[in-house]
Structure formats: C-alpha cells, structure tokens
Prior knowledge:
Blueprint: H1 2-10, H2 19-32, E1 35-40, E2 44-50, E3 56-63, H3 90-105, E4 113-120, H4 128-134, E5 145-156, E6 160-162, E7 166-168, E8 170-179, E9 183-184, H5 194-211, E10 219-228, E11 234-235, E12 238-247, H6 250-270, E13 274-283, E14 286-287, H7 290-304, E15 309-311, H8 322-326, E16 330-339, H9 360-378
Parallel strand pairs: 3-4, 3-5, 5-16, 6-15
Antiparallel strand pairs: 1-2, 2-4, 6-16, 7-14, 8-12, 8-13, 9-11, 10-12
Amino acid sequence: MIDIRRDLHQHPELGLEEHRTSARIQSLLAEMGVEFRAGLGGTGVLGLIRGDGRGKVVALRADMDALPLEDQKEVEYKSKVPGKMHACGHDVHTTMLLGAARLLMERKDPLPGTVKLLFQPAEETVGGAKLLIEDGALENPPVDAIFGLHVDPALDVGRIGLHYGQRNASSDDLKIIVHGTSAHGAYPWEGVDAVVATAQVINAIQTIVSRQIDAREAVVITVGMINGGTQGNIVADRVELVGTVRCLTQETRRLVLGQILKRAEGAARGMGARAEVIIEPSYDPVVNDDHLLGIVRSNAQELLGEENVVVFPKPNMGVEDFGFYLAETRGAYYSLGVRNEERGIVNQVHHGLFDVDESAMAYGVALQILNALAVLTQC
C-alpha cells in the first residue's frame, strides 16, 4: 500500500482529470480478480465483490482527486506535477480501498452479501458523488449502507474521530446583483445608488441568522466579494455580491435560502433599487446514521481501544460531498488519525506541507472491512 500511495502522490490529478489514477485502479482491481466498471462520472471506477448472492449490499467510498497546490515537502515521493498536490489525503483514501478490496477477495468463505467499491472523482470541485449516483453506482444492486472515511491530521495515528448526526454542513453559492441607476456624484438624487442599496442588502441578510433562525441551529452566511461601480464620482448602477451559505440541516437550509431571497429583494426595493438573487446549490449536509456510526465506534474500540476513539462534540461547518450518498441511503462518515509529531507530520489538509503517517492505512483498511462485514452479517 505504501508503494501504491506514493505512486499516486507523485502523480496527482485534479477533479475529472484522474485518468492515470483511474487506469492504475483498474489495473490493480483486475490483478485481484475484482469485477469492475469504469467511466462512471467520467473517471470513476465501481468495483463489485459478489458474495453468496444473498444478504445486504454495502458500499465503501474513496475519493481520488488532488488539489491545485504546490507540494512543498522535501520527500522522495514529492509530487512530480507542478502546481498539483494530494493535499487532502485522497491518495491515501484510494490506496486503503484497494487494500480493503484485496483482503476481501482473499477471504476463504464467501461474503454473506455484496461489497461495492466506489472510487470517486472530483470531490474537491463539482461534487463527484452526484456523478456516480447519476451513473447508477448505488443501484443494481441497490446499496443498503455506505461507509466513508477521511484522514485527519488533528488526530494522532491510531485514533478515530466520530460525530453522531449532523457531521458536515451543506453549502450553497450565493450571488446577488443590485441594480440601480447611475448619476453624477454631485447630483446623487438623480439616480439610485446601488452601493448604498447593497449596504442595506448585506445588513438585511446578515440579520437572518440572529433574528430568523433558532439560536440552537448553526448557519453561516458569508459575503466574500463585492464588486461594483466604475468611478469615484459616479453613482453606481450595479453592484455584485458573491458569497456562500452553510447549514447543518435541510430544513434550516430551505428556510435560510428563502429568507435571503425575500430580504435581499425587499431591502433593495426599499432603496428604489432591484436585487437579482442567484442561488446555486453546492453540497448536501453530511448526516450520519447513528446506528451505523455505532458500528464504526464499536469496531474502532475493539481494534484500537476505547481510549483511542474520539467523539467530536461539535459538527464541522466545512463541506463534503459524501452527503449526496447519505441523501440516498444510510451511511456513516468518520475520521482517521494520521498525525505524528515526532516525524513532523502535523500540517492540516490543503497545506503545501501536508503529509500522513502511512501506518494509519492499516487501521483504515481494517475498519472499512470490519464495518462492511458487520452490516453484512448483523444488520
């Protein structure tokens, strides 16, 4: 697995460009005798390990794509592709799923069910999980449960991190275009100032969180960019806002997005302007099935010891496209510790010095197999 991981690490590919990675996966699956289908979502691969023809169907997922980032590590397996790097551990995820496939294929007794291996493209960009779902990855046969994991450099190697219920937020891309009427800066009353109207829009949507949403629900509305106007002495006739909206539940998400539309249009209209609100859905929230996460917890405690299983007290407002799978079937998503301070492996994901303690891969493989077998034999 170390050799495979380091090969993938040296040849990172961005979302929907994972052609070499996909070919390597297909070659290794073929060597193992794993039935597979390629081309899902463009570059994705679906492996299928059939058991005795009875029982449930469990899916295990690994993402494959890298990031547009320069690898700053001085190691023998440093990225050979300028400006591209596996800075989020997807090379590790892919390698662990291949390791799980090999051990499952080497079982002497047939599986009491079926295991699907989802090698997924484009988690970092377009939400490749949607592409696999659209290409039938969860059907024929239909999946009863799905498990996924992510390396976590905040946890020491040999530890597992869990969070019940809402684990990751949803995300929606927000654009608001405020239309006014231009005028000379000396005679602003002859126009409608889109800049002033925009200020009112921003205040209006920011108070949604403090005054429209239950204080016990987590919501983040971020306006990250404002662009408008042409010159300092001209009243602007157009201002564009760009931002994101993050929520932990679909119910809250629907409420917040509806309020943004209502408040932006109302605030602009009150200033004599017009607001054009464009909302592009991005990622669904990751909401774990408590029973399946309990299986992960039990297996992790047996494998690593109860003291090495951490239950996170709060959800993560970051996003993860695993939520698209969970909108279709039950599942659990958890964290795998890869930190090793003695070796200087301490940097967070999406950092040019990110790396992992590769011994963590053995734990990840073991857990994925144990989780799958628990569903196939017990649920």
